[in-house]
Write a structure and sequence with these properties.
Blueprint lengths: L1 E5 L23 H8 L2 E5 L2 H4 L7 E6 L9 H5 L6 E4 L9 H6 L3 E4 L5 H16 L2 H10 L4 H5 L9 E5 L3 H10 L5 E5 L5 H7 L1 E3 L2 H7 L2 E4 L13 H5 L6 E4 L8 H10 L4 E4 L12 H4 L14 H20 L8 E4 L2 E2 L8
Parallel strand pairs: 1-2, 1-3, 3-4, 4-5, 6-7, 6-9, 7-8, 9-10, 10-11
Antiparallel strand pairs: 5-12, 12-13
The chain binds nicotinamide-adenine-dinucleotide.
Nicotinamide-adenine-dinucleotide binds next to helix 5 and helix 8.
Length: 347
């Protein structure tokens, strides 16, 4: 059987990290795994150019959201043997899920593998924005010492309203981590979680109220037809003057240029996140140079600990496939010819 994975190329590190698994060479230790089973395993770095010759005979395709291959309807139709598409991580929007369902291709991801890692990153970026960390840090390294330039734009998090958009595994963990900061927490999600509202001291609000009353909006919903470019010019215009947005979910949930314009106009006070569209982001992507931002590249969910959990979870999905066992229901996004994940089948 032929298995194809898309992973970043090897990069020389100043000090080698033995735990680093995320490149074509280490490949989550899958080279050894597939060799022991007698399967052909091909790793490629450039899906646009190198995937083409494998479409005809690949049976399993593996890629991650950090370095995605966009498996479009057209590519899926040209992959007649494809049975299993695995997301080595969380978030399977890089696969055309409807096309996978139509072809009865199973889509599975390593649910929960990096939710703590992303929640920590989101909390970090909220604090970085409010405290104007980037301004203070830039002065520290440049030799400057101008307190007003930093202090005039720095805020406490305490007392602010934080709106959590998407209250699943990550959204809930962000709520739990923010609670000790004495903030007011509100959330919006198609599934109301009354069981968690008292426990986490969070209040359910409709989408418009979340947008219009939050000092900080943190985005944790998947990219779907409903959330695609949901934060467009109109929605951004309805956020509070001086609000902040942190997006560690998917870049395409934002309208790229509307965000840039809002930051330039001074309406939004800041934006941070690690997700872009498309990825890897081009060197001239407008978010790299927009003002009042604390972007990182997409790595919140790939700490060394998360990489290890992704390795184990990916192997568990593959084991189930090879042994003909049922996948864990929570890992399944598409199965039996339909989208089965509750987070992706919202109409
Ligand atoms: N930056 C990263 O490294 C990274 C890592 C993991 C996940 N993610 C992203 O974060 C997303 C959430 O991950 P998770 O593990 O919490 O998933 P999850 O499935 O546990 O939670 C997603 C939540 O979003 C809700 N949702 C779906 N559609 C919505 C809508 N239209 N409006 C509001 N809420 C909606 C779902 O009901 C669910 O409660 C993933 O889909 C992925 O895109 C990013």
């Amino acid at each position: 059987m032929k298995i194809v994975a898309v992973l970043p190329p090897v990069v020389e590190l100043p000090e080698q990290s033995p735990g680093y698994l995320f490149n074509v060479e280490k490949a989550y230790n899958l080279h050894e795994y597939f060799a022991s089973k007698g399967h052909e395993f091909v790793t490629i770095s450039d899906a646009k150019e190198s995937l083409e010759p494998h479409l005809a005979d690949m049976s399993i395709f593996i890629c991650s959201p950090f370095y995605p291959a966009y498996l479009t309807k057209e590519l899926i139709e040209r992959s007649p043997n494809l049975k299993l598409a695995v997301t080595a991580g969380v978030g399977s929007d890089h696969f055309d899920l409807k096309a996978c369902a139509a072809r009865n291709i199973t889509v599975a991801e390593v649910t929960g593998s990096n939710v703590v890692s992303v929640a920590e990153h989101a909390v970090m970026q909220i604090l970085i924005l409010l405290r104007n960390f980037v301004g203070g840090h830039q002065q520290a390294v440049s030799g400057e010492w101008s307190l007003p330039k930093v202090g005039a734009y720095a805020h406490d998090l305490e007392g602010k309203t934080v709106g959590i958009f998407g209250f699943g595994r990550i959204g809930q963990r962000v709520a739990a981590r923010l609670r000790p900061f004495d903030v007011k927490l509100v959330y919006n999600d198609p599934y109301r979680r009354e069981d968690l509202e008292a426990q986490l001291d969070v209040e359910y609000v409709p989408f418009d109220k979340l947008v219009e009353t939050s000092d900080v909006i943190t985005i944790h919903a998947p990219l779907t037809e409903q959330t695609d470019t949901l934060f467009n010019r109109d929605v951004l215009g309805r956020t509070k003057q001086g609000a902040y947005i942190v997006n560690t979910a998917r870049g395409k949930i934002m309208e790229t240029n509307a965000l840039v314009d809002s930051l330039k106009s001074g309406h939004l006070a800041g934006y941070a996140g690690d997700v872009w569209y498309p990825q890897p982001a081009a060197a001239d992507h407008p978010w790299r140079t927009m003002p009042k931002q604390a972007m990182t590249i997409h790595y919140s969910g790939m700490t060394l600990e998360a990489q290890h959990r992704i390795e184990l979870g990916t192997k568990a999905i593959l084991d189930n496939f090879f042994e003909g066992k049922a996948q864990k229901q929570e890992d399944l996004i598409v199965d039996g010819g339909e989208i089965v994940s509750p987070s992706y089948k919202i109409k």
